[in-house]
Amino acid sequence: MRPMIDDLLAARLQMAISLGFHILFAVAGMAMPCLTVLAEWRYYKTRDRIYRELAHRWAKGTAILFAVGAISGTVLSFELGLLWPRFMAQAGALIGLPFSFEGLAFFLEAIALGIYLYGWDRVSPRIHLLSGLVVALSGAASGVLVIAVNAFMNTPRGFVIDDQGEISAVDLWQAFFTPAFPVQAAHMLSAAYASVGFAVLGIHAARLLKDPGDAFHRAALRLVVPLLIVVLPLQLLSGDRAAKHLAVYQPAKLAAAEALWETTEGAPLLIGGIPVDGGRRVLLGVHVPKALSFLAHGDFTSKVIGLEDFPADVRPPVLIPHLAFQVMVGCGTLMLGVAAWAGWLLWRRRPLESDRWFLRAAVLSAPLGLIAVEAGWMVTEVGRQPWIIQGVLRVRDAVTPMPGLQYSLFASIGVYLLLGSVVAVLLSREVVSKAPATKSSPAAAQEGLPAQ
Amino acid sequence: MNVWVDACWFALGIGVVLYALTGGPDLGAGVWHLLASGPRKAEQRRALQHAIAPIWEANHVWLIFVIVLMFSAFSRAFAAISIALHIPIALAVLGIVMRGAAFAFHAYGIHSAATRRRWSWVFSLSSLITPVLLGTVAGALGTGQIRVEDGVVTSGYLAGWTTPFAWLAGGFTLALFVTLAAVYIAAEAEDPALADDFRRRALIAELVAGAFAGLVLWRSSLEAPQLYAVLMGSGWSWAVQAVTADLALVTLLLLWVRQYRIARFTCAAQAAAVVMAWGVAMDRHFILPDLSVASAVSHLAVLPAFTLVYAAGALVLLPAFWYLLKVFKSSPGKPHD
């Protein structure tokens, strides 16, 4: 029987869907604890109970998101073997060190989160806040360490290929600290805070539009907005570094993202447009003269390598990376605009909680960060094709010989759709819409187990 | 054999034991959730949830630890096992996902009774299936039916795990986890009547586990001859089996006289002994007879680094893990609801 989807494509789609699902919970697991700790810290500083309520509410959101992130991450660790056993046989050791540290960081995070979520009345406020801080830091560390693995796949270092084509002379530290690592880590870390921050901002802004006087949501806004004003410029800067890094280390990816066919001196920046014919032509779109050369190398006349310079069998697809890149940059620019607006309002000492136009913009921007995260991840993954390890191992040589992968693909789609929709319902009902219980006794505000 | 290979193999063994002792009973608790009955049905379920909620994610990390250490240090074994046992592993992963998600949804805020019931069904059923599949995978490795030549699996995708031996190993795993869960909860329960409920369950489960142990041994003589030969053929093996049996008897006795806090330790020691006996019976192999520990090593040069990283990690994490257990398990929990 011929499968509907061939096994390689099924494996790639399953991995893409698993990662695309997990990444949303991963960024939440990185950023939400940070917000929660901020709120709790504000409570100890001001003794304003509204911040305590906020910390409780955000902690509850964190608990759901972390749990789903933990299990979807577990799935991924198994999928590495179930889908890409030949990659793991070759590179397991090389990516083992960051994954080992990630495992340790995740363990610490799980322990600290257990104390944070269930220990409100069991440990002292100091220990409680400290456990929250450990959750926030180890969450961020986990994300950075996973990025180290992805950076290895983009710019592999720390080994040689011997006569039999096998990886040998392994140097774990070189494989850990690859050229792409700091660039990608900075970009992903700021992306996590920016995307989750915008989602949180949008949710609370929506409530404020309905009920402008709500102290709870006003407090939430006051905590999130400064974070965004700090993070968004860093996001822009790290993105610029990432593009310059690609120009040197992964020129094919940059060329695909920019749909640049011919190697050009003084290359134009393409905004919008639909690449056709494998990137040889672009429909529509605006060319900004020499701008790409400047962005890639800091020099308007420098040479940017085009796709034509790569043999057809190692040339990445163009359509997806280019469109995804446009989406990412577009979302980022809009977010930067909203953050700048907020900064301006704060600078002019205008209460942004009651600026209805700002609130409307914030609501519309809520999904932008998460969309940008997905798009950016598509750029880096699809832009590396056909390689699983750039220049070393092809995706098609890494896939499992197991037949019938379409069934596990269908099963994963079903499971993720189910989990995603339940999480969405739970978050909207339990974290966002519930009337604040600020006047309740401390015991009733505990977010332990719900009543049966 | 290289001392670092030993160190990593040993660390892997510790990971499996700790997962069995911590993550195992969390799975077992899901089964008791399903089997909750009698006048204290609701209290039983609440006790189970209270016991798991703060610690299940930390417990679950032992499984991640095993996976990561395996693909780091023994990547060839990780690859071969992932190919040959793709089907049961994929099903176990499905079970792990559904169980974790169901527990989280149940614990963090689903209020409608019908929805809660549905998710608690998912939670219980996946808690039931997952240990069986994990045990089946473990059992399959010892059957000698999975063949690997030059790192390539040549025996297809059904070898090993489709034998009765592998499924009995799965049943044995389930029985052990369920026993552990009942003993742990009996020890934690504040209400003596509730403790008695779990005492009765623990006694039954322990007897069922004993029956499974006998069945597994019998079927191993037919379907896992090499494993059986090691189990029967050496002095240490008899010693370990005798110790395991004694621990089981002591656990039964302690349960009988309601010494739950000590029973918790003997029962854990018993489960650890079972895992270790299996580990040693595998005779330094990941897959009998083709994939030895030595031949599964990814790169000899990297093993010291992994050993040191995990040793250093243990220095930080074990005190933290101990603190977590101290916070939530030392004194009876105040009800949050």
| Helix/strand order of chain B, N-terminal first | HHHHHHEEHHHHHEEHH
H/E element order of chain A: HHHHHEEHHHHEEEEEHEHHHEEHHH
* Low-confidence residue ranges of chain B: 332-337
Which class best fits the helix and strand makeup of chain B?
mainly alpha
Number of helices of chain B: 13
Looking at the structure, the CATH topology of chain B is Formate dehydrogenase/DMSO reductase fold
What is the approximate shape of chain A? globular
- Share in β-strands of chain B: under 5%
CATH architecture of chain B: Up-down Bundle
Give the uncertain stretches of chain A in residue-range form: 437-452
Instruction: Give the tally of β-strands of chain A.
Output: 10
Q: What is the fourth-level CATH superfamily of chain B? A: Formate dehydrogenase/DMSO reductase domain
Trace the largest sheet of chain A across and list its strands.
Answer: 1-2
Radius of gyration of chain B: 20 Å
Main beta sheet strand tally, sense and closure of chain B:
2 strands, antiparallel
Helix content of chain A: 55-70%
What distance separates the N and C termini of chain B?
55 Å
How many structurally independent domains of chain B? 1
Q: What is the average per-residue confidence, as pLDDT of chain A, rounded to a whole number?
A: 88
